Predict the 3D structure of the following.
Amino acid sequence: MSVNTKLYEGKAKILYTTDEPEVLLADFKDDATAFNAQKRGSIQGKGSINCTISSKLFEQLAAHGIKTHYIDCPAPNQMLVKAVKIVPLEVVVRNIAAGSLCQQTGLPLGTILEQPLVDFYYKDDQLGDPLLTRDRLLLLQLATEEQVDSIAHLALQINDFLKSFWQKCGITLVDFKLEFGLDSQQQLLLADEISPDTCRLWDMTENDPNRRVMDKDRFRRDLGNVENAYQEVLQRVLQVVESKN
C-alpha cells in the first residue's frame, strides 16, 4: 500500500492518505505537548512506544467486541487506520480524582470515585477544550443525542476492560481520554490512541506520589525519567498480551 499526501498534522501524529480512500496511515511523533501545547518538548522513542501500546490495546478491545479504527501496524511508529470523521469531543473517563477534577472540585488527589465519571470536552484548542454540559454539547450540535448515549456507554465498557487490563500490568488506571469517529457507514468507532499520553497511570507497587507516575504527567510536571516510564509501560503491556497468547 502506497502513502500519498499529508492529510493532517496534530500534536502527536501525522495522518497521510493511502491508495485506498478509506484507509489512512497515522505516523506517531516523538513530540510532546502539555497545557494545550503551551509546553513543548520531545520524548525519545515515544512515537513507537505509543503506537505499539495502542495497537495492542486496540486488538484486545476488538477481541472484546469494541469496534475501533485500527487495521494494522506496518512499522513500529506507524498505524493503518480506517478513515473516520472525528466527533469533536474529548471523552474523559475518571476512576480516581486527579488533574483538573481536583482543581475544579477541590476533591483530594487520589480520591476513589464511587462510580466512574464520564466528562465531555469540546475538542477545540482555540477555546481551550472546555468542559461541556450535555445540553451545551447538543446546542453546539457536536453529536446527536443517540451518539452521545452510545459514546457514554462505550466509554464505560472500555473503562471496564482497561481497568482490568492495566491491573494485570500492575498499573492503576486513574483516568483516560478517548476520541470517537464515524466511518463512511456512519458507524461509531473508537479512534485516536490509548497510551501513556492519553491515560493517567500509577504504578501499583509505588506509594510515593511522584515515583508512581508512569504517564505524560512526568513530562507535564518535570518529574524526569519520562522515557523510562513509557518504556516500562510498554514492557508490562507486552508481557500481559504475550501471556494470553
